[in-house]
Structure formats: structure tokens, C-alpha cells
Amino acid sequence: MPVEIFTVNSEALRNNPLGDPHSRELHCIVPEGLSENEPVGVLWYLSGYAGVSRGMLSGDPWQESLQARISRLQAEGLVGQMIVALPDCFTKYGGSQFLDSPAQGLYETYLLTELREFIESKFNVSGHAIAGKSSGGFGALFHAMRNPGQFRAAVCHSGDLGFRLAHTGELPLLMNAIHEHGGVENLVKAFDKAKKKKTGRWIGPMSMLAYAAAYSPDETQPLGIALPFDLSTGQIDEAVFARWLAFDPVEMVMDEACQEALRGLDLLFIDCGSRDEYHLQWGARGLKRKLESLEIGHVYQEFNDGHRSTSYRLDVSLPLIYKALSK
Length: 327
Fold this sequence. Notes:
This protein is 39% helix and 17% strand. It is an alpha/beta fold.
């Protein structure tokens, strides 16, 4: 499967507060032999925290690259022609959660407006789907709920769901790191200087800081971020954490507008490993229960595995996405 690389100069990301690049590459897996005016569906695939979606293109001896997987599924007759777009929504903190925030930049606008318009200017797009893993799974559900009619399918693989259980256990990592470095600003300076960033020392605290930048920006606080805890006692600041919960799809689904958006999808797919290291299966189960009670059609699957190295689950979701895009 050929991969086309486009450079997009984003006005939404220009002069963002973190100084991250506004000119970014958009990698797209494009069907071979696609004619200029041929209608084609587009799947937007969102990466997890500390990753970029184009990382899906890199296979290793133990798992297929995304383009190899799609080629195999095509040969098996399970998927047909569709474009898979792999956006770059990375920030210096490790991820944007695909949201607009004054503490990090306008990544929702970049993704849903600028990149969508860009792709539609290049191809005859017949419909859009959105999917992702982990933070990307959260992003897929969030945007499907918030943007009725924009997507035909939404797929959440091991997504960030059930924030209180999934995230409060990780917050002490950020508390400890802030105390160790003498403040959140010093923490970020030390992280900037670190030669190895993708290690246990940094991933835990920085992921929580990235979430705070996305969910609870506050221009009156250091770095423009309200932390969801009291730094002197470690107690959860419920007023700030309530802002986080407003983004939790398990809470959002009780909003009637979000319910109607989900009912408008041709496919809503949610899965999670029953041994997820971040306990995300509990949020997924909670969302499943609510979807059932609201009589919102969906596909829910649990599988016997953890959070990592589960790209094989795309063998289940990609044929379903293609079917939804082909309606």
C-alpha cells in the first residue's frame, strides 16, 4: 500500500503556547490505482499518548505495519479501498488529547477543520470514520459525541474511559515529580533537558501534566494549567477534577446531544483488554452498561490481554469500519 506524505501549514497551531511546530506532515495510506475523482472513504486514526499516528507505519518482526495489515485484509476480501489518514497532534508534553486548549494549542480545530478540509481538497471523500487507541480511542469517542454527522463510524481501542479510576491512581506520580523538581515549571525544564524522555521516570508524570493541559487550562496558574490536586496535601481538588470528568465519555454519554450523535453513527465499536494495566476495562464496561440502558447500538468486545501491543485488534475493527464507510 503506497503512503503519501503531505505537509500542512496550520493556522490553528501557529504561535501555539508550547512553541510546537505549526507545519506538520500528514501521512496517508492511499489505495493503489485510486482514480482522481473516484469516491473514497477516509479513516482518521489517532495515536496514543507519547506517540504519533505515523508510528503505525513501522512494523517489527512480531507485528505487521498498518499498511501491510491493510494489504493482507484486502487480499482476504475483508476490506476494500479507503484512505487511512495519520495526523500528527503531538506536543512537547507528549500529546494534546486532540483538544483545543489555551495551555497547548488548537488541536481539535487542526484535526477536525484544517486537516478535514485539506483531505477533501485532495480526494473525492465519500465519508469519514475516526478511530484510535488509548488517548486516541478517547479522542475518537469524544469527537464522535461532540460532532454529529461528521463521522460514519467511531472506534475506541482501549480508550481513556472512566477517568476517576483510570487517572487518580497516576496523579501521585505528577505530585512527586513536582515536589522533586521544586515546581511544575522546573519539572518541565528538567524534562526538556532529559536525553531519554520515553522512560518510566517521565512518562507517568508528564502524561498527567499533558492531560491537565488539555482538560483544565487556567491562565492564572503556572504554565496556564490548573492541577487537579492540592500540592501541599495531595488531596484531589474536586472542582478542577470535575473539569476533567466533563471530558470523560462515560459521563458525556448521559448528555442527550451526545446520545443523538452516537445514534447517528453506522458503527460504534469499543474494545478493551480484560487485563488493562490502567484499568480501562472498568470504564469501558461502565460505558457499555450505559449504552445498553440508553438503547444505543454498539459493538463491545473484551479480549484476554493488557494495554500494549494489541494492534492485532485492528483485524476486527478495520473490516467493520470499511463496511460502515461503504454504506
